[in-house]
């Protein structure tokens, strides 16, 4: 009995002693860990540089660029004008990158100007189209700022298109201009002409000339060189041709210049000399306009070919003087009704005297069935764009806009 209290007391003492030692060891360990990882407060002001590198780097990486990019129109804007509305600018910095794309990923050309202060498009925008803009500028320390915007251009209520010749993919003669007739009168000709680009292989200078406000023709100074490939880009979609009237046409047209054929009609000798690539290939007896109905002088371009057509004097102001329902092998030279065509009713006029109402007539048979007849031969050996020159007639020179006959205008007048 006497041993129990002593034994019990001894056990309790050992238990308390073990816990105290454990607490002491943990405290020492904690102090050691704190001492190894600490020192921030004491070292931060000591000037020995400990910890400063990391702190300084963090401040440099998080400093905001001072450059400010502004995009007009604002993000989400609708009904934006196709010209004059888009502009990107930078303040307290310089623009380094600007991209503008439509929904199909087509980029809009433009240029950064003013030493990086602004960007503007070099062309108009298409109508009813959504565009996205991404712009980047750098401040004086090289830090970048970026901005993005999306907007949609207006949907026009009134539109126009250009009806053109020659057709896409065609092969034409050396005299063929590229001629566009617009469905609405144009009062902003510079904007419309700028939207039509012509590229040639081999390269040659091609210039446009306006006839009135609804027709624009393009040609080189001299006849095209045989074999020239011509590509025309009609970027009229979005062009404001007149107040509130916009183009809705975006098309690429290609055509090729064939062999050179220039035929010269002499109204005095009643003969036509046909030259192919500079060499005479045929001489044909002809008849031209009789006195009072003289044929135009000048350079004329074949613009249309008709195997058989009706010719009625009523359509050209000659009343009921003639109405021939089956004129064979007819090729148009002017809008006013001058043709070079087959004639089966002319008797002995060919090569002898002038008997027509202004056209150039070649011997033919009714219906044009004999393809060896002079008119049939000439028709079969001609293409639109070939040149027919008339000389020694008693009439004046044909007007440059009467058909595709701008060659009767000097280059200085054409480009004025």
Automatic annotation (TrEMBL):
Biological processes annotated in GO: cell wall organization; peptidoglycan-protein cross-linking; regulation of cell shape
Region (Disordered): 39-63
Keyword Cell membrane attributed: yes
Keywords carried by this UniProt record: Acyltransferase, Cell membrane, Cell shape, Cell wall biogenesis/degradation, Lipoprotein, Membrane, Palmitate, Peptidoglycan synthesis, Signal, Transferase
Top-level taxon: Bacteria
One GO CC term, this protein: extracellular region
Active site: 341, 359
GO molecular function, a single term: acyltransferase activity
Residue ranges with Gly residues bias: 39-52
A Pfam family the protein falls into: Big_10
Pathway terms, separated by semicolons: Cell wall biogenesis; peptidoglycan biosynthesis; Glycan biosynthesis
Cited InterPro entries: Big_10, LD-transpeptidase, LD_TPept_cat_dom, Transpep_catalytic_dom
Residue ranges occupied by any L,D-TPase catalytic domain in the UniProt entry: 261-391
Keyword Isomerase among record annotations: no
Protein name per its UniProtKB record: Lipoprotein
Organism: Streptomyces olivochromogenes
